[in-house]
Design goal:
Elements: E1 19-22, H1 32-47, E2 51-56, H2 66-79, E3 88-89, H3 94-106, E4 110-113, H4 117-130, E5 153-156, E6 163-168, E7 172-177, E8 185-187, H5 195-205, E9 210-214, H6 218-231, E10 237-241, E11 244-245, H7 261-266, H8 271-279, H9 293-299, E12 310-311, H10 314-326, H11 330-344, H12 351-364, H13 371-378, H14 401-413, H15 420-434, H16 438-450, H17 458-465, H18 467-481
Parallel strand pairs: 1-2, 2-3, 9-10, 11-12
Antiparallel strand pairs: 4-5, 5-8, 6-7
Helix pairs in contact: 1-9, 3-5, 5-6, 8-10, 11-12, 11-13, 14-15, 14-16, 14-18, 15-16, 15-17
Amino acid sequence: MRIDSCPFFFTGSAMPDVITRFAPSPTGYLHIGGARTALFNWLFARANNGKFLLRVEDTDRARSTPEATAAILDGLNWLGLNHDDDVVYQSQHAKHHAKVAHRLLQSSGAYRCYMTPDEIIVERDAARKQGRAFHSPWRERKPDVSLENSSYVIRLKSPQSGQTIIEDRVQGKVVFDNAELDDLILLRADGSPTYMLAVVVDDHDMQISHIIRGDDHLVNAARQSLIYAALDWPLPDFAHIPLIHGPDGKKLSKRHGALGVEAYRDMGYLPEAMRNYLVRLGWAHGDMEIASTDELTQVFDLGGINKAPARLDFDKMASINAHYLHNADNDRLADLVLAYIRKAKTWPMDTQAQQRVRKAMEIIKKRAKTISDLAEQSYFLVRERPIPLSGKVEKPLKGDALPRLARLREVLESQADWQVETLERELQAFAGVEGVGFGKVGQPLRAALTGGASAPDLGAVCALLGKKETLARLDDVLAANIA
């Protein structure tokens, strides 16, 4: 049955064979499990020259918020999971959903149920004790005139015998006894559609060919397939993917770090790394471990999805991110690092400081796993002078360290070749001339130049700061500590 007035009735050019959708509920952030579901849908559509659609299931008006919707859209945008066509907001099509429920009522695929809340409690309790599904006594009873102004819900008239079989692309053949499936409410007493009805109608009208979602929706597939059957609509392909578990094998929760996608972005992960990591959470293709998004769109298929739950592994996530970080464009990394530092600090950075950060990327990125690592190791390059010294940072500057720094400053000022390798050799040679271990030179020099912050080797620190800045920072320390 096709309802010609449906809001997604496509005309004109032929639709692709594969149309997937991601349908989040805007009641919170886009968590990592939802991001993986969106990625699988996106990859499958792109791998098959299909369409990837986005539907915001905001029918729960009490819990849905604009802020959550914005966070979900922002998370998908950061991950690079671009959707085709306009975003569909489910709540905007409630009248159409209700129209379908009334069509089912007219065709005897559904019925009016006048049970009161108290009666429902009694019947559900009886059904539970008898080990059967809930069925309203109004299923076979016709309402009389006295009920004309009474409130009612519209329930699906589910089959009470036989089986509902889901041929799932991941789980295989899954069989449900119809005797265990309730008569679903399709339309509430206030005329609003339920989730089960709205999902089926929207998926049909959007011509979704493959429904790829978490396996916690597997029983919903059975219930929803009954609605498809009652409407005489073709059933889409189902693929229910196992949920993500924590490192301990238990259901993923906040204590495992089940954060929103924006949190991983703020921690310094790159979107391409997250795509690579997420796709490997429950999917495999031979021995492929590191794969670009272009490569993934060439090989992704539903057959590669595992039945067993995947385990979140933060070490693996960081390792994959490090791979992409080491191969990323330096200017892009510098922009991300500068934005990260600006977010944490309030003072403006001059052009020279920003240029030092850009110059540093090639060296520092080899030692980092995330943008936050890069920012921490780049921080010394943009610190305002004079750099404050206190506590443990002051300790290396005690005793004969300051006179030695003064002598080192003279050596460095005379150095014409300001390259990393040359500076490393000069620092080692200076320690030899002073007759001390390198730590006696390196520790006070690092304190003076970086304030004790995480930074590369000292030759690189000097080279990245530049001769003028290096000498100026030494002068600051010497002027402040030598009477």
